[in-house]
Amino acid sequence: MTLMEKAYLPAIISGMGITLGHFLKKPVTVQWPEEQRPFAAVYRGLHVLKRDAEGRENCTACGLCAVACPAEAITMVAAERKKDERHLYREEKYAATYEINMLRCIFCGLCEEACPKEAIFLTDRLVDTEFDRDSFIYGKDKLVEDINHRIDITVRQKHKNLEK
C-alpha cells in the first residue's frame, strides 16, 4: 500500500463527498397525513367483504379463504339463512361471524384469490392504528362494506385478471 492509502485519506475524502451529496439533496420527508405517498396498483391493505348490486353479502361461508390463509388469521362460523333474510344474503348459507386477526394477517392476498364468490378483497386503504390487541380482530362490523359508501375495487379486479 502507498503512503496515501495507509493514511486512509482517499477513503475519507470519498466518504465525505458522499455525505455532502446527501446533505445537499432535497429531503424525502412526507408530511403525513396531510400529504400521502401514492401506493402501487398492487398494494394490499385493509380487507373488505363485498356486497352485490342489491346490497346482499357475497360471502357464503365456504371457508376457502380460511383454508388458503397461511397465517390462519381468518375464522368464520356458517349459518343457514332464514326465509325473512333473503334481502341480506345471496345464498342459503352465510357467514354468521367472520373475523380476521389483523395482527396475524400477512396481507398476502391468498384469501382474495381463493374466494369463488369474489366476496373478500384487499383494498388500498390503511389498517387503522389501535392501542390494544383486541381491537385488531376485525369482525363483520368493520369488514362488510357500507351500502351507502361502496368501495371501488375495479382496479384490483383488472390487475387480478391480468395476472391470470
Strand content: 5-15%
The computed structural class is: alpha+beta
Mean pLDDT: 88
Unreliably modeled segments: none
Number of strands: 5
**Shape, per Cα inertia axes:** elongated
Q: Separation of termini?
A: 58 Å
Strand order of the largest sheet: 2-3-5
Percent helix range? 25-40%
C-alpha Rg, in Å? 24 Å
**Major sheet:** 3 strands, antiparallel
Number of helices: 6
- SSE string, helices as H and strands as E: HHEHEEHEEHH
Describe this structure in words.
There is one protein chain. A 3-stranded antiparallel beta sheet has the order 2-3-5. The protein has a two-stranded antiparallel ribbon with strand order 1-4. Helix content is 27%, strand content 15%. It is elongated and about 90 Å long. The protein contains 6 helices and 5 strands. The protein has 164 residues and is α+β, with helices and mostly antiparallel strands.
Helix/strand layout:
Elements: H1 3-6, H2 9-24, E1 47-49, H3 64-68, E2 74-80, E3 93-101, H4 110-114, E4 120-122, E5 137-138, H5 140-143, H6 154-163
Antiparallel strand pairs: 1-4, 2-3, 3-5
Brief descriptors of the model:
alpha+beta; 6 helices; 3-stranded antiparallel beta sheet; two-stranded antiparallel ribbon; 15% strand; 164 residues; elongated
